[in-house]
Design a protein that fits this description.
Blueprint: E1 2-3, E2 7-15, E3 23-31, H1 45-49, E4 64-71, E5 77-89, H2 91-105, H3 109-115, E6 121-131, H4 136-152, H5 158-167, E7 169-170, H6 182-186, E8 187-188, E9 196-197, H7 212-220, H8 222-233, E10 237-242, H9 245-258, E11 267-269, E12 286-291, E13 304-308, E14 313-315, H10 329-341, H11 344-347, H12 362-380, E15 388-392, E16 398-401, H13 403-410, H14 418-423, H15 425-434, E17 438-439, H16 443-450, H17 452-458, H18 462-480, H19 512-528, E18 539-540, H20 547-551, H21 561-577, H22 580-593, H23 597-609, E19 616-618, H24 620-635, H25 645-653, E20 656-661, E21 664-667, H26 681-703, H27 709-714, H28 717-727, H29 733-762, H30 771-774, H31 796-805, H32 812-834, H33 839-869, E22 889-898, E23 919-926, E24 929-936, E25 946-951, E26 955-960, E27 977-982, E28 986-992, H34 998-1012, H35 1021-1024, H36 1042-1050, H37 1055-1058, E29 1085-1086, H38 1113-1121, H39 1123-1131, E30 1148-1151, E31 1167-1170, H40 1175-1182, E32 1192-1196, E33 1203-1207, H41 1212-1219, H42 1231-1248, H43 1251-1255, H44 1264-1268, H45 1274-1290, H46 1330-1336, H47 1347-1354, ...
Parallel strand pairs: 10-12, 10-13, 11-12, 19-20, 33-36, 34-35, 34-36
Antiparallel strand pairs: 1-7, 2-3, 2-6, 4-5, 5-6, 8-9, 13-14, 15-16, 17-18, 20-21, 22-23, 22-28, 23-24, 24-25, 26-27, 27-28, 30-31, 32-33, 38-39, 38-44, 39-40, 40-41, 42-43, 43-44
């Protein structure tokens, strides 16, 4: 029972201190005057009676009533019910009061009396009831009754009423008790004829809310209240504002009611008096109500959420973030609330809403809202009891809550809201209050335990949710109002308006004695009454279902999780069974699986099974695997370890161990310390409590004996605890003490155990590294921002001492010990005080801990020492690379990891597949290459071998790198990492293994540098090969070689002297020693290629009667054998007859003027010059040109006899002289003038040598007319039109404005070529690049242009209108074609004025120089082989490719080449005179010859071309390739590679014109930089001669010949295998190629992007030809499974041409193997091929009917065919046994060649059918037919396609047309009949070749080329019709 009211107080107004306008409250009387013992009188009541301050009013107000709440120091709440009314104040009274105050304050009276107005004033007076019970209505009635008695003057005495009010007692919780005596307790009467029933709640733990919650929602709305609710739970400050005090109280009460079952434990003041407003700036959270009159004072509060109840708004300051409920709970709660508050919402849209929907009454609605929140908490805290740790049962339960596990099970670790709630005070109180297993239960306990399943089931259905809410609401309502039928209230109310009566007597003074007597009576009576024993309703609290069961539905179950777990299990089984290889394969999958929680738990369970008796000894490899799995598992755990993975691993890390040496064992914990979780004190606490709970449970389970043991096992610790609590009161004192002592010692022993465990995991293996404390492994997480163990839970003092101590560097290891000791001490203090360990024990622990740590450090020292001695983990054994003959190892394998670079295929990339990189292996350095060989670290491809290598000579950049992301867990930090880039488009990113000393890595770099840049060319691999010792630096001149001997005598030394002499005097020649050679020697690449033109005959004499001395005949023959000479003779550019008499009719002669390399070092010894030019003239001319490279002839067009010349650029002086007008001769012929005259003569001599020049009547240039119809030949007519547009295109669309037009006459024209950038067709007007557009029609009617177009292109288009707009020349003037065009550099020819008397034209072009090529190539390498992966590789590649401008340069070269080809082809000679004449010039000249002369497109011819133009004419290979130390600074400039790329582009466009394959070009690209062959070393013939490379005779070749000439190697290889041969080679005689050069037509060469990791580059043929069978057998797994023949081909791994050769190669291979089997000598592949081709040709001739397959066509190149572009790929399945190259789907091309010329043309093009991009359709049969057009239209040939699939006959304009011109649907065909020729039908065709096709719409007339074809067409169409 409890008192209804503790105190009754009367408070009245008293004037305040002077100066303040307000008065103050004053307690007039209080009853009882003595404080109750159990409940002292609360201080400060007078403030709360008038919260806005005591003031006097000018009129009477109506009485008010509200309840204020005061909280005392024990956090008990006192409810103060204040009833206030107003009494008139007499002036005298006031003055009396004031006088008293004055006496106290000794102040003047007058001043004060002046303040008082004469009018009557009213002062407030309050009657206050103070109670600990919250019965608002009862208090209102009681105080109202007192007031009524006083105001209406009822007969009852106030003292009796107040006395009985103070003595009334009521039960705290009533509930419906059936016995009626109880009525008295609940129905009270205060003795004034009144009667009230007090409804006491059934269960006092549930709050009482009346209607307050519903009101709060009405005032603020759903979202606002939910926000406030979350804010209160997450401990924010909340302030309510309202002008009504009662409303403030209600709102605060409502918020508290919503928080049930949590209790608010911070400041709670529903009505805050004005004097206490500063409380609002307290730092702690609060819920406070303030009258809205003080709203302005609340404005500056920055961290307070303000809810204005009157305005319905909630204001949240910017700095506050309210965490809301987790989804989906938030949404569900909102939905449920709207169901309750606004039931009409659901029906609002219905057409026929139900007639009656009424919201419940306010009281009911209030309970429904509370029911929603009760459900919410039940869902939020579902299963909380399973996370309680009971750590003591006796003397009373001590319970801890495992937050991390709770959050982990719910999957809300990352959530914003729940973790904050669990951290809060309210929840701590909840655990203390509701944790104990044996106590009273209430509605919430039942809800959590029994309704969980139901709530889950109800989730989706609103109806069921609402039903549940209503049921709960009923219970809540019933709890508050247990007696619904009570209407027995009878309380008198005062009469209306009584407060306005004028003469109201003041409230009487009550007689204290009477009241005190009544109270004393009552207390005495209570004491004498027997105590009411309340029946204990305690019971065991049900736990409800565990969380896991409930959460399954929400957890995202991975579809393949079962498979993953199986992998984890298998891997662990393999480890323990010792199947290491199997385990290694699965390991990456296991490590990946560790991301999922299930897999981590599975891992811990599986490992548990392998621990026997707390110990599992493993061998080193097993230990390594287990540790890696554990680390990976822990790495994905957070510091809180919410899933308990670290907790389950903790016992395991102290169980798994390995023996290091006798008596020294290493445990797993020393290898898994790098995780944040071990430094988290919360983790250790949770672990500790968990263990303690298990031990305490065990204590009681065992204590109960063995009998019903099995059942006991099932009981949880809480259940056992509940049982014990129930028994506790019945036990004897001794028994109780014994149990307490047992429990305490259990906790104590656990504390010792944990001190040990913690020292294991916190002390690092190497105590000198205080790793943990410096925080390397322990980056703090969000909660603990500091880095080491000094997380925020460590006391500040520790942090301070950390700073002070860390000053001592030497004391580091003890440092670690100190920290660990401190950390453990803190932990022990906390857990022991919480779990009630005695002080003595605690002190003992503190003494023990340092010893434990010290002991552990000592054992670790030994372990650390031993573990250092361990042999490193068995790494895969190093695979040795195979080396070339003569290649020697410089540094043996250094173990490295090959890291992935930006090329993504090898690393898995976009195409998927297992990552081949990173790979572990070794890097080898040999005299020739850098080789990486190893195996991928990903065990799924662990059996594959990865090889990446490149020649040292091709290394372009070597740099140290740091890899940002740790690529692999093996790679230790701090290991050296290198990136090596090669110009063979290879990149090695290697990280040295930790076992490789840093010195070794440095040595490796030094060796690499030395080998890459040798002192001299003779130190390169091509020279040193096969020499075991380092070569003594002697030139390897072979003395037996007479030619060399004689040359070396006569040559270099005296070269300069001999220039003017007639005879060479012989002197003994000794080659200068290496040291004195200049930096001329540069680039190792070729030797035999240069035609050594050191003619040994004395051709210094100019007489033609020179005879060859017998001793020099050998030399002469050598010279004649050189490539230049062979080619000159082939071209008919002069012969070397024995008498050397020159035939006068030859326009050119072979001059030996440079045989001593005296005139030009970089030219060959034999040169072609015009017949009429004397050698001494040449010497003078050469001075005008750079590097003395004067114009020489290098090729002549056999048809037009136009010549191609090359030279260096002009020196400035020469230019001025050359183009100076000679009309005004200088006073004296100066040297410059005579030179330039000679130059002019020289050029004139070249022009005179041209036959057309003579034909044109000795005129200098060909007139426009002649050139248009030159000698009436159609060839010139055909080619004529092209040049106009071509020049225009090359000029980039600019008008040739530099040409000055003067009088009629023949003049030199200067034509401008724009810079490479303006090549885009932006500015082109009128005939926009006709050349391209004419071509685009399919290259068939290329030249079939009318003369009119021709003359237009040739003439008018080149006439530019001048800027003023008048035509520059009369339009009848035809453009003249010059006889000689000089292609020069624009910059050199600037300001040159054309001279009307000259006969040549200068074409100034802008070309890029070597520097631009160099930088462009660098960018190209980075584009094709990026060093770092990019987010979108495709886009990045294209972007960087464009930036490199490589294709722009290739476009430029091709474009100029095609221009030159056109000029030569139309009969004009061309002199290419650019830069120094050895870079771009060489490229252009070589390409022009390749395009113009089919001979150079053969293997032999291409060799000759390279030897002649590149080697003999001195392209500086050494210098451009930076092959020696001297040229290192100049960098790598791939001029030759650029040329090869151009050839590759042409090869792609004309695949049938080249005898060699694309592979041949790649082979050259690779080896011209590899230094494997001597061919491409050095800069000129002169240098090769010095080294004695030029004349190595065939008879003298030794074994090491391999390295001499690349051409010999190619020749030998070509005999063995068709690798360099192009099967599609079917040249057309004399065809000049004109490739497209637009960038859109150029392709990136796959040489730049492909690689084969299986074997490294395939260009060292010996290395890749290992027998494939052996390999296959070696890699077969030892299973008996049937072996499949399938091969997996990876784009970046396999060598595709070998694993899947094309059809012909495969057939040739098969033939060879069959011949071997039969024991025959295998026939050479070439002979076989030739036989097959010959057979095909014969077959073609023997079959005039034209029914042979397309394959024969391919081989039989007798048919004339058009320019064949686009490759035909011969990759076939390789199964067919005949060479079947049929390219169409069925036997499509049967109708191809016919006797008619036209048919033949068409047929060739059939080959390309499958490459017509737009033809995705299916062609069953096709061919050419004439078709009669519709009415009145002529017959036209059309290409018809019969398509069975679509059942239609389509026709096209031509074979190459991609757009269908018409379709005949076969469904509409009625009949097909033979036809007759009609008017306009093709002549010369047999009548029987006509047939008609009748459809429902019209009749089609067709005509085939002959009868058979017609018949075939009819048959085919018939069969199609019948099939249908």
């Amino acid at each position: 029972m409890a008192r209804l009211a503790d105190y009754f107080v009367v408070v009245a107004f008293a004037p305040g201190k002077r100066g303040s306008g307000d008065g103050q409250g004053q307690i007039l009387q209080r009853f009882p005057e003595k404080d109750w013992e159990d409940n002292p009188f609360p201080q400060g009541i007078e403030l709360f009676c008038q919260p806005s301050g005591w003031q006097l009013f000018g009129e009477r107000n109506a009485p008010t009533f509200f309840i204020a709440v005061l909280t005392d120091i024990n956090s008990e709440r006192h409810y103060c019910a204040c009833f206030t009314f107003w009494e008139a104040v007499e002036a005298t009274q006031l003055q009396n009061c004031l006088r008293k105050v004055e006496e106290e304050e000794e102040e003047m009276v007058e001043e004060v009396t002046a303040l008082i107005q004469p009018a009557q004033l009213f002062a407030p007076k309050s009657l206050v009831l103070v109670s600990r019970l919250d019965h608002a209505e009862v208090f209102r009635n009681c105080l109202g009754l007192v007031y009524t008695i006083y105001v209406d003057g009822l007969g009852t005495s106030l003292e009796t009423v107040i006395g009985s009010l103070l003595t009334c007692t009521i039960p705290i919780t009533g509930g419906a008790q059936p016995d009626m005596e109880d009525e008295g307790a609940r129905t009270i009467s205060l003795g004034a004829g009144d009667r009230q029933v007090i409804q006491t709640p059934i269960n006092d733990s549930l709050p009482i809310s009346n209607c307050s919650v519903a009101l709060l929602f009405r005032q603020l709305g759903i979202t606002n209240v939910l926000g406030l609710f979350c804010a209160a739970l997450t401990e924010h400050k909340i302030l309510f504002l309202s002008s009504s005090y009662q409303r403030l109280t209600d709102a605060c009460r409502a918020l508290l009611a919503l928080m049930f079952p949590l209790k608010y434990s911070f400041t709670y003041v529903p009505i805050l008096p004005a004097q206490l407003l500063e409380v609002l700036s307290t730092p702690t959270p609060f819920i406070i109500g303030v009258s809205s009159t003080f709203q302005s004072e609340t404005q500056e509060l920055l961290d307070v959420i303000i809810a204005d109840l009157d305005g319905g708004t909630v204001t949240i300051p910017e700095c506050i973030h309210i965490s809301l409920l987790p989804e989906p709970l938030l949404h569900q709660t909102r939905e449920a609330l709207s169901l309750v508050l606004d039931p009409e919402l659901e029906m609002a849209d219905l057409a026929f809403p139900p007639s009656t929907i009424s919201a419940s009454s306010l009281k009911m609605q209030d309970k429904e809202i509370r029911a929603v929140f009760l459900r919410l908490f039940a869902q939020l805290l579902q299963g909380y009891r399973w996370c309680l740790h009971i750590i003591r049962i006796h003397p009373e339960p001590v319970i801890r809550f495992h937050k991390a596990a709770f959050l982990g099970q719910r999957g809300l670790v990352e959530d914003d809201f729940l973790p904050k709630v669990l951290e809060g005070m309210a929840f701590a109180g909840f655990v203390t209050e509701r944790g104990p297993p044996y106590r009273d239960t209430d509605l919430f306990d039942e809800l959590v335990a029994n309704e969980a399943k139901r709530m889950q089931a109800d989730e989706g259905s609103k109806v069921r949710v609402l039903r549940h809410i209503k049921e709960l609401a009923e219970q809540l309502y019933k709890n508050e109002n247990p007696y619904p039928a009570v209407t027995m209230h009878k309380v008198q109310k005062p009469t209306e308006g009584c407060h306005l009566r004028l003469h109201q007597r003041p409230f009487p003074r009550l007689d204290e004695g009477t009241i005190q007597w009544i109270v004393d009576q009552a207390t005495a009576k209570l004491q004498s009454a027997p105590p009411l024993v309340r029946a204990e309703k305690k019971c065991m609290v049900p736990s409800g279902p565990p969380l896991g069961v409930l959460m399954e539905r929400h957890g995202i179950v991975l579809a393949n999780s079962a498979r993953r777990l199986e992998v984890v299990r298998n891997c662990i089984t393999y480890v323990f069974e010792g199947k290491m290889l199997e385990a290694k394969k699965l390991l990456p999958a296991v490590l990946r699986a560790m991301k999922s929680r299930a897999a981590r738990q599975c891992l811990t369970q599986e490992l548990n099974l392998h621990v026997q008796q707390n110990r599992a000894v493993l061998d080193h490899q097993q230990f390594d695997f287990i540790v890696r799995m554990m680390n990976c598992c822990l790495q994905d755990c957070s510091a809180t370890d919410e899933h308990g993975v670290a907790a389950t691993l903790l016992p395991l890390v102290t169980a798994f161990c390995r023996k290091l040496s006798p008596g020294i064992t290493q445990f797993a914990y020393s290898c898994v310390q790098e995780h944040l979780v071990w430094a988290t004190i919360q983790f250790w606490e949770a672990m500790f409590y968990g263990d303690v709970q298990n031990h305490i449970r065990a204590l009681y389970v065992e204590g109960n004996g063995e009998e019903n043991h099995s059942e006991k096992e099932e009981k949880s610790a809480l259940e056992i605890a509940a049982g014990q609590c129930r028994l506790w009161p019945t036990m004897s004192r001794e028994k109780q003490l014994e149990l307490i002592q047992k429990e305490e010692s259990t906790v104590f022993s656990q504390a010792i155990h944990y001190a040990n465990r913690m020292s294991y995991l916190l002390l690092p293996l190497d105590a000198s590294k205080s790793r943990l404390l410096r925080g390397s492994g322990f980056g703090g997480d969000a909660e603990s921002v500091s880095n080491s163990f000094i997380t925020n839970s460590i006391a500040g003092s520790v942090a301070d001492s950390y700073d002070t101590e860390s000053g001592f560097e030497d004391a580091e290891s003890s440092d670690v010990a100190n920290y660990v000791v401190r950390f453990i001490n803190r932990f022990v203090d906390k857990v022991c005080t919480e779990s009630g360990v005695t002080n003595e024990h605690l002190k003992g622990l503190h003494v023990m801990i340092p010893d434990i740590v010290q002991m552990h450090i000592e054992t670790l020292d030994a372990v650390h020492r031993e573990s250092k001695r361990l042999p490193p983990i068995q790494k895969p054994k190093l695979l040795r690379p195979s080396l070339l003959v003569g290649e020697e190892s410089v540094m043996d394998g250094l173990r490295v990891y090959l890291m992935p670079d930006g090329r993504e295929e090898a690393a898995g990339g976009s195409i998927g597949g297992p990552p081949l990189l990173p790979a572990e292996g070794a890097v080898f350095l040999t005299t020739y290459r850098i080789i990486f060989k190893g195996t991928p670290t990903d065990p799924l491809v662990g059996e594959q071998v990865v090889v990446r290598s490149f020649p040292i000579a091709s290394l372009t950049k070597e740099e140290k790198i740091t890899v940002q992301a740790q690529v692999d867990q093996f790679i230790q930090e701090g290991c050296a990492q290198l990136q090596l880039r090669s110009c063979t488009f290879q990149l090695l990113r290697i990280a040295f293994d930790e076992e490789v000393a840093s010195e070794s890595a440095e040595t490796f770099r030094k060796h690499l540098g030395k080998l890459r840049y040798p002192q001299h060319v003779s130190d390169t691999f091509a020279f040193t090969v096969g020499q075991s010792a380092k070569p003594a630096l002697q030139p390897k001149a072979k003395e037996k070689n007479p030619s060399l001997r004689t040359i070396s005598r006569n040559l270099v030394k005296n070269a300069k002297k001999t220039i003017g002499r007639q005879y060479v005097t012989r002197k003994k020649y000794t080659p200068p020693s290496w040291e004195h050679r200049g930096s001329q020697q540069h680039f190792p690449e070729d030797h035999e290629d240069e035609i050594s033109v050191s003619e040994e005959m004395d051709k210094g004499t100019l007489s033609s009667s020179t005879t060859i001395r017998p001793s020099d005949k050998m030399t002469m023959s050598h010279l004649v054998e050189r490539a230049c000479c062979r080619d000159y003779q082939r071209l008919g550019l002069g012969t070397l007859s024995s008498s050397l008499t020159r035939s006068k009719n030859e326009p050119f002669r072979i001059s030996t003027v440079n045989r001593m390399y005296a005139i030009c070092r970089s030219y060959p010894g034999l040169l072609i010059v015009p017949q009429s030019i004397q050698d001494n003239t040449i010497q003078r001319i050469s001075r005008c040109y750079r590097q003395n490279r004067f114009p020489v002839v290098c090729w002549r067009n056999a048809r037009t006899k136009a010549t191609l010349l090359r030279s260096g650029g002009l020196h400035g002086k020469g230019v001025a002289g050359l183009f100076k007008s000679q009309n005004t001769p200088a006073p004296g012929p100066s040297q410059a003038d005579s030179t330039s005259l000679e130059q002019e003569k020289y050029l004139q001599a070249v022009i005179n040598s041209m036959p057309h020049y003579a034909e044109a009547g000795g005129r200098n240039t060909l007139s426009g007319f002649t050139s248009a119809h030159m000698s009436g030949s159609d060839s010139s007519e055909k080619r004529q039109p092209k040049l106009g547009s071509l020049m225009k295109q090359v000029m980039g669309g600019k008008d040739p404005g530099t040409v000055s037009r003067g009088a009629l006459g023949h003049r030199a024209r200067v034509i401008t070529l724009s810079s490479p950038k303006s090549m885009a067709a932006k500015g082109r007007d009128s005939p926009r690049g006709k050349w391209g557009s004419i071509r685009a029609s399919g290259r068939m009617s290329n030249y079939a242009l009318t003369t009119e177009i021709g003359s237009r292109l040739a003439g008018k288009e080149l006439l530019s209108t001048q800027p003023n707009g008048s035509p520059s020349e009369a339009s009848f003037l035809r453009q003249h074609r010059a006889s000689l065009y000089i292609i020069g550099d624009k910059s050199q020819l600037r300001g040159v004025k054309p001279d009307p008397l000259q006969h040549w034209e200068v074409v100034p072009i802008e070309v890029f120089d070597a520097r631009q090529v160099k930088s462009s190539f660098k960018k190209l390498m980075k584009a094709c082989v990026p060093s770092t992966p990019s987010p979108e590789p495709g886009v990045a590649f294209l972007r960087s490719l464009e930036e490199s401008e490589w294709l722009v340069q290739i476009h430029k070269i091709l474009q100029i080449s095609v221009l030159v080809v056109e000029l030569l082809d139309t009969g004009s000679s061309v002199l290419v005179s650019l830069e120094d004449g050895w870079d771009i010039t060489t490229q252009l000249v070589s390409l022009v010859q390749l395009l113009s002369d089919p001979y150079y497109r053969t293997l032999e011819g291409f060799r000759l071309l390279v030897e002649k133009e590149w080697l003999s004419f001195g392209h500086r290979f050494s210098h451009r390739g930076a092959q020696t130390l001297a040229s290192q600074s100049s960098g790598f400039t791939p001029i030759f590679l650029q040329f090869l790329d151009c050839v590759h582009q042409i090869h792609l466009q004309f695949p049938m014109e080249f005898e060699f394959s694309q592979y041949f070009l790649k082979f050259l690209s690779y080896h011209y930089v590899s230094s494997r062959f001597r061919t491409f070393l050095l800069d000129s013939d002169y240098e090769r001669l010095e080294l004695g490379l030029l004349y190595e005779e065939k008879g003298e070749r030794k074994g090491s010949q391999l390295s001499r000439s690349i051409w010999d190697y190619v020749e030998r290889l070509n005999k063995k295998t068709p690798i360099f041969f192009n099967y599609m080679y079917a040249p057309e005689d004399g065809e000049v190629l004109r490739p497209y050069s637009n960038i859109s037509n150029l392709k990136v060469w796959d040489y730049y992007t492909q690689e084969t990791l299986a074997e490294g580059p395939s260009y060292d043929w010996e290395l890749v030809q290992c027998p494939a069978e052996e390999l296959e057998e070696a890699t077969l797994p030892d299973t008996n499974a049937p072996q499949s023949r399938r091969k997996i081909i990876w784009p970046c791994y396999s060598n595709r041409s070998r694993t899947e050769p094309d059809a012909i190669s495969r057939l040739l291979e098969e033939l060879q193997s069959l011949e071997m089997e039969l024991g025959q000598v295998p026939e050479r592949w070439k002979d076989m091929w030739d036989k097959v081709k010959a057979f095909q040709r014969a077959e073609a001739q023997a079959d005039p009917s034209g029914r042979m397959g397309a394959s024969s066509l391919l081989m039989a190149s007798s048919l004339p065919h058009q320019r064949r572009s686009l490759g035909v790929y011969l990759q076939e399945s390789g199964v067919s046994s005949t060479i079947n190259l049929s390219l169409d789907n069925d036997a499509s091309s049967t109708s191809t060649p016919s006797s008619g010329k036209q048919g033949g043309r068409k047929s060739t093009s059939t080959l390309y059918s499958q490459f017509q991009t737009a033809e995705s359709e299916n062609r069953s049969y096709e061919g050419s037919l004439y078709k009669k057009g519709a009415f009145m239209k002529p017959w036209k040939p059309r290409w018809f396609v019969l398509d069975k699939t679509k059942h239609q006959l389509r026709y096209y304009d031509s074979r190459l047309d991609t757009e269908c011109k018409g379709v005949i649907d076969l469904a509409e065909v009625e009949s097909i009949t033979p036809g007759t020729p009609t008017m306009g039908a093709p002549k010369m065709v047999d009548e029987k070749a006509f047939f008609d096709l009748k459809t429902t719409k019209r009749v089609y007339n067709f005509c085939a080329q002959d009868v058979q074809l017609a018949q075939q067409w009819i048959d085919r169409i018939q069969s199609c019709l019948s099939d249908a």
